[in-house]
Amino acid sequence: MVRETTEFDAIIIGAGIAGLSAADALIQKGFKCAIIDRENPGSGASGAPSMLVNPATGRRAKMSWHAEEALHSVSDLLQRVKGFSGESFYENNGVVRPALYPEIGFDFKRAPEKYNWPEGWIQWLEQEEFTSRFPFFENAHGGLIIGKGATVKGSRYIKLLSQYLEANGLITIYNSKAEYSQTDSGWKIILSSGETAQSESIICATGSSLLKDPNWDFLPMNSIKGQTATFRFNENVPLNSSVSSLGYLAYTSSSPDELVVGSTYEHNFEDLEPNEKGLNYLKDKLNSSLPGWSEKIIESDQWAGVRVSSKDNMPIIGNHPHLKGLYVFGALGSKGMIHGRYVAQKIADYIADGKPINSAISINRFV
User: Fold this and answer.
1) Which domains does the chain carry?
2) I need a surface site. Which of 9, 93, 168, 362 has the fewest CB within 10 A?
3) What is the pTM of this model?
């Protein structure tokens, strides 16, 4: 699988948003890179059917960390992959945030000024105007329009991103386990096939598997199971944007009779399979935003994955405190799309150029 190349500047373990984004950032710096995954790319949480690029999350619609730079980074990558593939796997269709309770409306109304949003990014609409524009949100107490948002067909994007990077020099090794050990000159990787490879740097971007890796068990991370449901209806959905309220409704005009509804937040779970309890929960989420629409479902598909968050809900990147050349990139949580490529740039800048990592995302805050 390694072919004729067995020595790399960096080997990334884990082919989700984090790992593939790191590969892109390092390849752009001229690094010779390989990526390894024990399954196919996007086999974990990064393979969700749909994902939102939403800079205004949470019940207060707070602007996400370094939102302008992060949005620029992910937009650039999406455009490059689209140009390579010729496929329309995402839409810059914005996000609508109905305030389903008065107290949420109070917080939403304050958000545009409180968080110093860039001009044109976010707009508050009072109840009368909001319900006039969106009469199907029957219970809304006003709402926010997030113009700078996008909806991405997650699993398809990850596959195309892997293909794009492979065309640009990335060596991909999928459906193979990898064991790594330190050597005098760097790191040695042993694959399931028995093949070996050498690298100066190893980046562990294995998502929930980080919690079981003894090299990273000191990091305060937790896993959350999330289930989604793709609902198909007997008529087209009355939307032109995705929705973020109590959960999210991911919409694209290419599938006008379909919504991907997410997500459950399960801190205690016995398995990684979707289940009927999750399906019913997601139907309730659908009805909270679009009353009565669960009665129009004609077909549903379920999906489940596990995402990882840190105790301060910020990503974690950096060098292991005692093992030179061993890096971590994880804890993107539910913000993988908007943060992934931007944070990848920061770890690439650190590895390639020694540029310090912002303390908000550095591993050093937990060392």
Assistant:
1) 7-47+155-220+312-366 (3.50.50.60)
2) 168
3) 0.95
CA 169, distance to chain mean position in Å, is: 24
Neighbouring-strand partners of residue 245: 247
Which of these, 202, 224, 225, lies nearest to 215 by C-alpha position?
202
Give the model confidence (pLDDT) of 172-219 as tens digits: 999 999 999 999 989 999 999 999 999 999 999 999 999 999 999 999
Distance CA 366, CA 359 (A): 10
Q: What is the distance between the alpha carbons of residues 142 and 121, in angstroms, rounded to a whole number?
A: 17
CB 252 within 8 A of CB 151: yes
Phi, psi of 20, rounded to the nearest 5 degrees: -70, -35
Q: What is the DSSP string of 87-123?
A: ---EE---EEEE--SHHHHHHHHHHHHHTTPPTTSEE
Mean pLDDT of 118-139: 94
